[in-house]
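Pasting two entries for a bug report.
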Amino acid sequence: MSPRLRRAAGLAVAAVILALLGWRLWPRGEAASEPLAPQAAADGSVQLAPSQVQGLGIALADVQAAREVPVPGLPAQVEAPLEASQQVVTPWAGTVSAVLVHEGEAVRAGQPVLRLRSAEALRAGAELARAAAEAGVAAQQARRDAQLLAEGIIPAARNAQSQAQARSAQAELARAQDALAGARVRLAAGGEVELLAPLAGRVLRRMVRPGDPLPAQAPALLIADPARVDVAVAVPAALRAQLAPGLALRLDDGQRAQVVAIGADLDPASQQLPLRARLDGTGGLLPGTRLEATLLLPAPAGALALPAAALLPEGAGQVAFVRQDDRFRALPVAQVLGSADGQAVVLAPGLRPGMQVVVRGTAALKALLPPPQPAAAR
């Protein structure tokens, strides 16, 4: 199509739009005294009668002061809190002979959860048995020598020596007992040891099966308090200066969590900043659940909340159509700070809380009004 034909087609379309607007706005019946065709005033506003507002299908919403700026679409994952979860690790190298609990099973602190066959464990058990036997013999000798000293049969030096040996043997027994207690194990029949749950909770993850060979300090089970969960979130590094503990995090199911910790460096994989928030209870969420979250940052002074439908593209920016009495005008939006759930938070000179903005019929208004001038030009 030639430029002349395209220009002619554009004029024809514009004429049709103006004709339709004129037909929609043409006064009828009792409204015969209302203006026939709205005209833009010198200040860039246009006056519309109630019937014309209705005819254009205009709907309005209130502007409100914003307290929070949403940052939506953040990847998040539910995790067990670090202080409310512990791993069951094998204190010695060995072979798993039995797993005594299932994933999801509730356990009490000190309950056996895994059985291990280990040569090192056997040596530790033998060491404990030897220390217990030596401590018993030494204690018996110390009691006998104390009695003999009282009867004047032995000298005080011999009694002092037996008492010292008894104390040394008792200390060795305590050391052997602490070695097993610190490993959270207890000796079982057949030369095996049972690993004990370090806390009351629920088995979240099992990393071993019967027959698996394990090195020392290998993780076998993860146990956590089922009544507490955290939400780990990755946020853009550009927001670092605005982050602080206490900020709210809204999950995609409507629950809210509170930020408790902020990462000190970027995650190498995502190049984002890790953030941890605490849920009040679990809300039915299980560790490992992946979801999206919205971080709610404090709104700056002058920030306003309005429906996102009120924003209309205009050049490189956006505008909102405002109603003041019976007149409508377009006001430039200086900055859109954030948008989520159909609401936008903006900075817009000239907009104030309590004003009304057009959320439907904006295209018709745009056809009636001249393009808004930038705030600096006015």
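Entry 2 (this is the one that rendered wrong in the viewer):
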Amino acid sequence: MNRLEIINSLISKNGYKSYLEIGCQKNKTFNNVIIDNKIGVDPVSGGTIQMSSDDYFDSLAEDVVFDIVFIDGLHHKEQVLKDIKNSLLHLAKNGTIVVHDCLPTSFEMQVVPRETKAWTGDVWKAIVELKKTKTTIKIAVVEIDMGCGIIQFGKQEKLVNTGKVDWSGFEKNKKEWLNLISWKDFQKQYL
């Protein structure tokens, strides 16, 4: 199971017609997404538009919406938060945001700046921040493919009393902090 299976199954189940991908390096995911209309944004290569995600969102008219957005750009908490918040402004009412690289398996894998080949950055911290501050969305992370976050409009209770959001806390609390679910649970809840 991987991110592509999540994206294509959500498209098929919900009849989605429009797709936005942030971070399209080598078009590994972008070229295999099965949907009528797709836009890929990457400042270096891949996709259909060469610019930063910040510039792309600044250029969008307010009424432009996407059914599904895949975020796999710069793996820094601050940028991921910006990409998610901007995507929420352009997400269809029944839409879904999928965020890659939410589940590092080692301290080194989540260090910013990058030190390892396999790297998630601190994307997980963006998920925790949203769970601490937003009640108008619901978030889960599927335990596959380095963690695939699923964000939809809905309701969630705020995380409280997390203490310091660091690697030690993550190791102890990741199930609760990320609302980790299995592939089977994803299928039951979202498909």
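Dev reply: Rendering is fixed now. As a check, the viewer should reflect this: The chain has a mean pLDDT of 97.
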